Amino acid sequence: MHPYLQHKLLATRRQLLGSMAGGIGAIAAAELLGGRALGATGGGPADSADPMAARLPPLPAKAKRMIVIHLTGSPPNLDMYDHKPALVAHDGQECPAEFLAGKTFAFTSGTPKLLGTRRSWAKCGQSGIELSDAIPNLQRVADKLCFIKSMHTDQFNHAPAELMVYTGSPRAGRPSLGAWVTYGLGTENADLPGFVALISSGTQPNAGTSSFGSGFLPSVYQGVQCRSKGDPVLYVSDPPGMDRAMRRRSLDALRDLNELQARELGNPETLTRIAQYELAYRMQTSVPDVMDISKEPAHVLEAYGAEPGGSSLANNILLARRLVEQGVRFVHLFDWGWDFHGTNPKEDIRDGLTTKAATFDKPAAALIEDLAERGLLDDTLVLCTGEFGRTPFREGRTAKGQVLGRDHYPDCFTVWMAGGGVKAGHVHGSTDELGFNVASDPVHVHDLQATLLHLLGFEHTKLTWRFQGRDFRLTDVHGKVVKEILV
Amino acid sequence: MVYGIPRGRSSTVIIAALVVMAIVAVPLAAAGDSPSFTRDIKPLLSNRCAQCHGPDAETREGGDDEGLRLDTLEGSRADLGGRAAIVPGKLDESALIARITSTDPDTVMPPPDSGTPLTPAEVDLLSRWITAGAEYEPHWAYVPPQRPAVPVVKHAAWPKNEIDRFILARLEVEGLSPQPEADRCTLARRLALDLTGLPPTPEEVDAFVADEAPDAVERFIDRLLEHDGYGEHVARQWLDLARYADSAGYAEDRPRTIWGWRDWVIKACDSNMPFDEFTIRQVAGDLLPDATLDDRIATAFHRNTLNNSEGGTIDEEFRVAAVIDRVNTTMSTWMGTTIACAQCHDHKYDPLSQKEFFGIYAILNQTADADSPNESPFVALFTPEQEARRELLAAELAEIAKNVPAARDKALEPPEFRPLRELQASLQKQLDAIRPRTTVPVMEELPDPQRRVTKLQYRGNWNDLGPEVSPGMPVALSNATPLADGRPDRLALAKWLVDPANPLTARVVVNRIWERFFGIGIVSTSEEFGAQGELPSHPELLDWLACELVDRGWDTKAIIRLIVSSAAYRQTSKCPPEVIARDQENGLVSCGPRVRLSAEVIRDQALAASGLLSRKKGGPSVNPPQPDLGLTAAFGGGLDWTTSKGEDRYRRAIYTTWRRSNPYPSMATFDAPNREVCTVRRPRTNTPLQALVTLNDPVYVEAAQALARRMIREGGSNAADRAIRGFRLVLARSPTGPEIDRLIKLFDDAAAEYHSDAAAAKQMATEPLGNPPADLGADTADLAAWTVVANVLLNLDETFMCP
Lengths: 487, 803
Known about the structure:
Structural class of chain B: mainly alpha
Low-confidence stretches of chain A: 1-41
Number of strands of chain B: 6
Helix content of chain A: 25-40%
Low-confidence stretches of chain B: 1-30
Largest interface: A-B, 124 and 133 residues
Mean pLDDT of chain A: 88
Oligomer: heterodimer
């Protein structure tokens, strides 16, 4: 975006009075501006006074909205998505030195032992995609999913790796994926936040609120954290002793007083504030309404395994559908507890994984089917990922115990997507027979980001924000669209 | 949700406005004029050419092996095999002209796939510049400021000081007149909020309004500059720059104890420490001869970097990340220069090489901290009583040591020493038992044998090292040369930053001060003074202020006094539409500033107006009420906190616990940053989520309840007087007749409801503040209704704006 327009977007001091509208027509003015390097082709609210107004992306888009399911800690892809019979055959053997040379691991040193999966696998549906018995419901919808088995990243610690996936940089300070998308597209329902973050299993994302933050973008683009306990959005409830009629009465007085002031000073920003208070008033009804899953019929609650009044990934996945259905642009789910080191039975790739995966598998599959039934899957992009992969060998600290777990591994992992312009029942890329390296079609995290933006209608090099004299973007100076997975 | 950062009525309005504004602010050279290099040519070369023909040798293209450089005169004239990009005065011999006017997509520059082509007007500018001799000028910000002559103005009666003559001279060129001085109530509120972050009391306003002395405003300003809330207010901006927080960041985001440094900054602001001293102590206080404990505490400025204690991390990786952050923060804070690009490659727009980045890095790479979980090294702070006791114990122990054998083999020691030994052990135990009041992590230079060798990091990768780099500073930014003597260390760096020959620091500092009072800097990109930044709106004024700062011994309070005493600052912000149309952002200062208050001031104002605010200064950070999230930080402790007891519930915002992974939500909603990195400029947004905070956050509900009680107690017995009292406590001015009527109507309507619903009335009036004192003498329904009125007063648009 052109820094001048950006500056306009941020300026709040005063705006032109309505009386200025006469004189120059919109088209003529736009032409005039065209000569002044208006960054409109890159997207962003260059042509709008309202930074959250819904807008079309510069390129044809298959996806209009997006849901991300982040499995915080990173799931064991070798026990869910990427079957390695050779690893099973060599289970318990010392890891060949050539696979370890020059690599550093978070909790493993010396020579670890290879760890074959203990899961059973099935070739699923028409596509024959092979998935483990940890995720029986996703097996059912495999034909609707698109897997990338050749993902890789640069980071092997949780927080930097998570920042890498969602902000394109391992260090703090950059805007998140959801913030970029909301900046680019605005939102379709003014009465709800455009970008919502939902957190389950009791713990924040690895990078805290930065994983759904706005970085140097204006804070209107940061994810609004919605909660299942207390106010769904902070301070959305009127204080005790104030009913809706009293709130209306007080807002009427507030508006009248602000209008008196606007007449006195003639400052249009006062009018903006009046509008914000009216929006807030409407949000006070619309947010609790959309967040109330008890309004869903019993069969839907059952399909997702959601329970009104509780807090779970299943509830949040159902909420994600309710939110996108209502016009929310971007919903980012974070579920804690996928860091399968094997330091306790919950992190065991056998029963521990069965238990944990059940909380995710059923609602995730239900989401895909539900979106498809409602005709929303075609233009809703769903992404499910962790921040990196997990080692094909047993984690060093736990090697002598009974629990089987894996260390962090940045060199290969699997993500899946659905809907929104990606091929259904498709697998892209592969790893070598032991799962140590990408064997074909490597996809870096920046490539994934470029692809997501492409699906949403953006050329990733052009969705930019001028900050400290430089045009920043999600993909930093990298990124290549993975054309092979596009419909 | 529809948000308005700014909103006009339609995009048409905004676009039309942009065109008008662009013409006002950046008048391009009219046809026939000789183009200005800085204004007309440099932005073109920088934005359209520098990516491939700029300072970065790695990506430079064209020409011979070295590539074609268009950012320097030499480069533009270089022999390209019988041709040159630019031949002064000769358009037909200049290859640049041939390429930018080519119709062949394979040869035209910039290449069609690189973005926007040059417009005919831009080609014309370049042509006329070459015809006129294609002179280059150094980037304005790298030329040390010279004190400019103060302009002569026509309207000689208006200026109150030199600032006004610079402002007025430009307004007169633009055909604009300044606005009259704001009324005293407005000035009182503007000055008090700008200088202390607190609203004036109605009594202070009355005294100021009644003061007929010619220097009434100046004396009012002087009182505010000495107000004990001054430091707590102005320090806030420095804490943003220093990325000060009470947690260490990353996943675990453990609590960090570093508030002793925050208190040092507040004290330094209150005592108006000269900025050069303020700088030297924070960058290198530990290296000063006879460094005091305070000097060492000051160095915690650079211990505010993140620390990653997540399991399985390599400490060196995150130590390096911290040092890189110190390089970036130093350059942003003092020199308005973004150097981060040069971590991975030579800067594409400014004369900063990757080697120079690591030259600064080498200077900052010699401290003992190493991303260790305990954050050592740190200093311990004791109370004066503790300090006295420690000295006493230490003296006694020293005395005993003289009287016992040095040998420590007690088995062989004669038994007569036993009582002394017992005393020694007991005293030592007492000494160890004195726990410090707090600790502060500090910068501490490594001893010689442990000093690190700095190597260039390829592509910014800490693990992929190149040749050794010597410590040093970027030569193109400043010809100040204190690094010449001996080994360049942090002290040399600190002195280099505030050397009067450094062209950037003083300009950057006065520009940030200006921005604080006018909402927009003289350089609007206050974080970027390099080639990609905006040009100053008033270059002479900027240089005059910069020279003034240095000549007055880096006295920042003196600069602030000059600014707020000026007629420019004192103008009314009520402004005719035609003036707004000419100067939308008020970059010309065609009227007084009207700027939304910061997150901190919005909180402090509500608490102060309601009488709840505690004026306790300093000490550990405190926890105002915030709703429980029921979440923990990744690998860390709970994010919920226990609300502080007693007056700590009502402390100024600057003392609120700043947790990076989960910043205090009510302030984050009003654009407070999470302080993971240096923030030079906060955005100011206007969103419905902000409305929810000030309407419903129990902190603001409680303030409304307390304000209601104050209105009843201090306002007298009739409704109008109570409404007026509340209004003045918040806004300083008296309400107009229609405003009083509207407030009374709200009170009457609300009271009628609450009289029929005692339970609701009780809740509205007392949750969370508690029962009113027995002597207040108002019934609960009236108290509830006044709380509703107070809640409206705390949410008026005018309340959020510095008037």
